[in-house]
Design a protein that fits this description.
single chain, alpha+beta, 16 strands
């Protein structure tokens, strides 16, 4: 099956729904956009980055028959067979010969001559690259291989992904947002810190956000003046040492919320805007954990997000952007909306669920999009997962179960070579749990978690308690 969404995406990016796309799952492209930018200090997350880099496998279910996906590693053949049994038309695969776990799929492809040659061949016959997000690296890959990017220039993609751009645009369009300030210079930061100090004195909290932060990186919640002054001194000190008074931050009041939302629309090359969907986002500490489908919204709230999508899409088109746009939003405790928390002018986690949602999540279904953390003592082949989860896996005839949409992240952090006794590594299984009610979905999710915990325990050679 090739979903309607992928056809619409092709039309938006190229003008025709029959285009031959080469998908590139370069997740956390923000790390490239943030290079050289004066935001908050970033930490290296060890195995976390290795796992994130194997999220490239999500693109398998976004591409359709006749498309292609560039991958860091060969997918488990049993996983591919399982997807075909579910009815997915799998794309062609361009797999790099030697992957560096710490590199993105773009960086690996840039070092792989056979992949570069194949990309050039596809480009010569009309194929185009559809990246998760476009930075200078993706432009370099397209240029070196000789294949066009189906995207605006990296400079535009980076500019519209800045949280400073989001806040300023919301202000210009009169869209409700939390109290806050953009800080593109030290002078603006000084003023924002004094305004934040008044909020703290009133018993409120504030949050500092890096303009290119992602997945909980680059967020600092401040509850007292001591922490506020420390952050202020740190940013000023770094600017002084760099001889540069630029700052890349927003400072906002930390407000109460009932729910997080994520909605997506697509902007065509012709400026047309198509609203794709809205989902309830599951987050913790700014880290994306999954989605709830459908979002628990009223007709009024849905209509408001549709109207805002049109406003934002029109403005993004005027600024030269086209492609997928995901927007984070919030519902306040009284049901009011903050329609723009930030704009992500790139693919989002939701984007990669589009074909699953179209095929298997109907109006009578509910779904939880989940990530299950694992602690493994040995790599876990898909066949072992399938046997352990057996009756819990998605069955199209039954219309319920867990649909695994990324297996590569399970074993991404496995150490190479023979396993030393006691060696453990982190893994992550991504999937979509579908059932006919919220209660059944939650029960199924709990049982999947229990079976996975027992399976992981077995790989560590531990006896079940």
């Amino acid at each position: 099956m090739t979903g309607h969404f992928t056809g619409r995406l092709k039309a938006a990016l190229t003008g025709t729904c029959d285009a031959e796309l080469v998908f590139l799952g370069n997740f956390e492209v923000e790390d490239q956009w943030a290079r050289g930018e004066p935001g908050l200090p970033r930490l290296t997350f060890g195995s976390g980055s290795v796992i994130v880099n194997r999220m490239d496998e999500f693109a398998l279910l976004l591409a359709g028959k006749g498309d292609h996906v560039v991958l860091k590693g060969e997918p488990d053949p049993d996983y591919l067979g399982h997807l075909e049994e579910l009815g997915f038309d799998l794309p062609g695969m361009l797999v790099v010969e030697r992957q560096d776990p710490g590199s993105t799929v773009t960086q690996d492809a840039l070092e792989d001559r056979p992949v570069l040659r194949e990309l050039g061949r596809l480009g010569a016959r009309g194929g185009v690259v559809c990246a998760h997000g476009v930075s200078e690296l993706e432009e370099r890959l397209a240029d070196r291989a000789g294949i066009p990017l189906a995207a605006p220039p990296a400079a535009i993609c980076k500019a519209v992904n800045s949280k400073i751009y989001s806040r300023r645009l919301a202000g210009e369009l009169g869209i409700r947002q939390t109290r806050g300030w953009t800080c593109a210079s030290l002078a603006e930061l000084d003023a924002a810190v004094e305004a934040a100090r008044a909020l703290l004195a009133d018993g409120r909290r504030v949050v500092f956000k890096d303009a290119f932060g992602v997945s909980g990186k680059g967020i600092e919640v401040v509850a007292d003046e001591r922490r506020l002054d420390r952050l202020h001194r740190m940013v000023r000190s770094r600017a002084r040492k760099a001889g540069d008074d630029r700052v890349g931050l927003v400072v906002e009041e930390w407000v109460a919320k009932r729910a997080d939302l994520n909605y997506q629309f697509t902007v065509g090359r012709d400026g047309r805007v198509h609203v794709d969907f809205v989902k309830e986002a599951l987050t913790e500490g700014g880290v994306h954990l999954g989605h709830r489908i459908p979002a628990r919204l009223t007709e009024r709230q849905t209509a408001e997000l549709t109207e805002v999508s049109g406003l934002l899409g029109g403005r993004l088109a005027d600024d030269g952007y086209f492609g997928v746009v995901g927007v984070d939003a919030m519902v306040d405790p009284d049901g009011g909306l903050y329609p723009i928390v930030e704009i992500n002018a790139r693919h989002n986690m939701s984007t990669y669920q589009a074909s699953i949602q179209e095929a298997f999540i109907g109006s009578g279904s509910t779904a939880l999009v989940r990530r299950y953390p694992l602690r493994l003592g040995a790599p876990l082949p898909f066949g072992s997962l399938r046997r352990a989860l057996a009756d819990l896996l998605f069955d199209p005839a039954r219309g319920s179960g867990l649909l695994i949409n990324n297996h590569a992240t399970v074993n991404a952090a496995a150490p190479p070579g023979e396993r030393a006794p006691g060696t453990e590594f982190a893994g992550r299984l991504h999937g979509v749990v579908v059932a006919d009610s919220a209660d059944r979905t939650a029960a199924l999710d709990d049982e999947v978690g229990r079976r996975l915990a027992a399976l992981a325990q077995g790989t560590r050679g531990e006896e079940r308690g």
